[in-house]
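We give the chain.
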Amino acid sequence: MSQLDFLLSVPTMGRIVEKYPSITKAGPFQQLFQKGGVEKAPGGRYYYEKITNDRRLAAIRDYEAAGFVTPKPTRRFVDQGMITVAEKEVLTPKELFMTAAPGMPLVANAPEVIARAVLRGFARLIRTREYFCARILQDASGVTISPSATAWLTGATQVTETFSVDGSLQTYAVGAGWDVETTRLISGDTQLADAQRTFEGTGFIAKHLLYSRDTAKAIIANIEAQTWLANSAGQNMAFYNQVLAAAARLQGDGDTLEPNALSGIGDIAKHVTLDHHYTNSSGTVTRYMDDGKAIMLPGEDRLGEVLGFVEGPVFVPRNSNVIGAEQAAEFFDV
């Protein structure tokens, strides 16, 4: 076979026209939740405890006096229902068999057709989990997941659930003030410094700032940020474009907490750009991370106090014959 024949062969052309590879691992937002701990739920709900310790001073007393009785921290128990998602893709006989009749042999590429269908379904499930994690983080006061959400296909059925993030995570709206010269992005009391203080008031130190590329561009356009970049660690204007391609790719690959060129601005150790996307029910490419928002998170050693990811059981029917109640358990893989 000549080189030209190889380049124009069916398998080669098939790989060329396949637009996006399937996702086979958790996306950046789900990875963040998993850094807070992964739990297994035996049933349809999960139930766990979160404690926040106070930072009060000890009371001044004479050495013979009794100590001041400080109340214990409030024990908060989280009781949350689980959301179940399912995906199905139907393959017709003519896609898998030479002729649609009993006993006919499979076509040569039948295993590949089945494998690709499984990967597509798995990728849709991963994107759904990524959507939940992204929406919850971007509304720190709680987000309601309901059938009216625009991400779901028409006719899909969901149980309405309301989630909230513990620890008052700071989801900061980013407006025009971030990218004009008169705004004091770093030293002022209404931008990053104020967000830091709000975060510290809930017992955390902000270590990560998550945002989209558009929000990153707004920060880059700020004079204080430009000055900081130009004078810090030898960085200069040539590094600015680095942030636009940093961290997550379109499909959500990559380490979620990898720093980029803006890291360190505003006393925040890592700036993270998450700009990957899904396709909503209208067929429109939609970013998980809203433009005009920035999310603050504590360091990785404290993520378990505000985030957590829970996985429940999944029952997949086996292709086997079951006779009698005593064999019913054999009908399912978990």
